[in-house]
Amino acid sequence: MVETYVRLLCPECGKHWEASPNDLPEPARTFHCPNCHASRRLSEFARTERDLETLKTF
Q: Which InterPro entries match (predicted)?
């Protein structure tokens, strides 16, 4: 089985990282940047449209 990852980018501090969609909340839920603790909807952290679609799929 191939693991799926989404690329995330904080719109406030610019931190970028990868995470498994299974370890993340739904795209509309509030998410906090692990670096600067900015709070936004998870969908706003998706780096690309493809990453957002992957989040929505899981």
A: DUF7836
